[in-house]
Amino acid sequence: MNNNILISILVIIVVVVGLVFLSNNSKKKVTLNDVNEVEKTPEKQSVSLLDGTYSFSMNESQIQWEGKKTLVKDWVDIGFVSLVSGDISIVNKTPSSGKITIDMNSISATKTGANSGEDKLSMHLKSADFFDTTLYPTGEFKVSSISLIENNNYKVTGDIKIKGITKIIEFPASIYMKDNKILVDGEITLNRADFNVRYGSKSFFNDLGDKVIDDNFILRLKLVAIK
Questions:
Q1: Which of 52, 92, 165, 188 is most buried, by CB atoms within 10 Å?
Q2: Would you list the domain boundaries of the chain?
Q3: What is the pTM of this model?
């Protein structure tokens, strides 16, 4: 056998051995430890709530409201209302109680369905037609129970007081910890007729035509509490 043929055979053997080695490595068995390492990535870790009483920050917290005209397509009014005070307590790494007080005189419109008249609507919302903030300057919500759904998601139940009328409500909320602060994200749907907010409500008037304003309005909570 000449040298050229011998060299060719050796090259083929080396290539075949190399391919077999690479194939075996590519089929490496995924172990339980490998899976656990993936699950331990920062994105999937939840931070345990630290016990204590946390006060809601008026500067960092936000409550957005939204209302609609029932018969006018795409008519949405949006605005904000501010906190006066509030707190949430964590016991055994679990939310246990909480309360907030809302400054009804702070209610304002930042967008209307007409794309104008925000200041006019802001003043109207404070009048006796709506929330009568001179007579009822604050609203309140006090937690009666918080029950875990899964992960950081909870069902919050409590008493809400608007215009001197108290109703029991419940709503879903995310309660979690970030940068040593407790964050609460939630959305509450309320029926304003329950609180005697009559203006434009078909619950009280029958001849409103397309001026009917939906009885349901939404409060979106993004609250930040500091120990």
A1: 188
A2: 52-226
A3: 0.78
